[in-house]
Amino acid sequence: MGCMGFSHGYGKVPEEGYALDAIRKAYETGCTFFDTAEVYGDVMFYPGHNEQLVGKAISGFRKDVVLATKLFIYSEELCGGKSVCEAVRTHLEKSLANLNTDYIDLYYLHRINAEIPLEEVAEAMGGLIKKGVIRAWGLSQVGVETLAKAHAITPVAAVQNLYSMLERDCEKEIFPYCMEHGIGVVPFSPIASGFLSGKIHADTQFEAVDDVRNFVPQLKKENIEANLPILDILHEYADKKGATPAQISLAWMLHKYPNVVPIPGSKNQERILENLGAANVELTDEEFRMLEAALNACPVHGHRGHVETVQGDFGSNWKKKED
Predict the structure, then answer these.
(1) What is the pTM of this model?
(2) 246 touches 274 (CB < 8 A)
(3) What's the Cα-to-Cα distance from 214 to each of 165, 187, 191, 210, 321, rounded to whole Å?
(4) Which of 61, 211, 283, 320 could cysteine-pair with 207, CB 3.0–4.6 Å?
(5) What is the pLDDT of residues 230-280, one digit of tens each?
(6) 10, 27, 40, 237: which one is catalytic?
(7) Which among 165, 51, 62 has a CA at the least distance from the CA of 108?
(8) Active site includes 40?
(9) Buried b (16+ CB within 10 A) or exposed e, 200-216
């Protein structure tokens, strides 16, 4: 479960009590992997807002779940002689305090900073693993060359990249490399920011403040209309399986790769439980083959890609919006 939406990314957020209840209901339903990041909340609240919320929600079952969070490292942090290792440790200590825990199961570098040697980040993560304050580390929105460089220094446990029926670049190199090297792939936005649920239409109005959907290429009006054939396919399989389109899109990737762990996110309790229900939707090999063939025959309109950096990433859209 991706927890971002309770603090950031999808406009107005629900009351804290509703968010806490949603996370706890997800756990009761069987979810044992929760994803957050230090930056979630910085637009409408403050950095660390989402971590604090998640930490409060899971306090009663912390030891029974996998907890993932992420850090950015900015170039100015290293002014005055501060090392990369010291910078990473500073971020980690804040996240540990926010999450009210003494260890992180999976600690990601949120985006690559081209001005900071990745090798030094990998070495810092290795040191934290040896000390036991993080169990494993990962990278987000990276290509295979970057992944290989980091993995050679400190083995990478997981890659959190954009992947869905509408964003399939990771199939070319990331999935093959990760399967060969025992690395998990954690797709964020696996339902394409809601498009694959069938609940977004060409006339859907997204919120004015802190709503990622304003920037998602496939959610431009013309692309929503052009990608409708993919929704038609999902509805066909959903009807056959007694499932929802969103559940079929998740069942598709779960069937396709043994190392995939999608983290759909929502601020709506009903959607969260629906997404978790995808674990109970099984495609036969023949159904998967036919679904894959139908998808391969559909051109996708709009493309974001899975390689981003601090210097020129998708996140700069928020700054542009503010300007």
Answers:
(1) 0.95
(2) yes
(3) 19, 20, 16, 9, 10
(4) 211
(5) 999 999 999 999 999 999 999 999 999 999 999 999 999 999 999 999 999
(6) 40
(7) 51
(8) yes
(9) beeeeebeeebbbbbbb
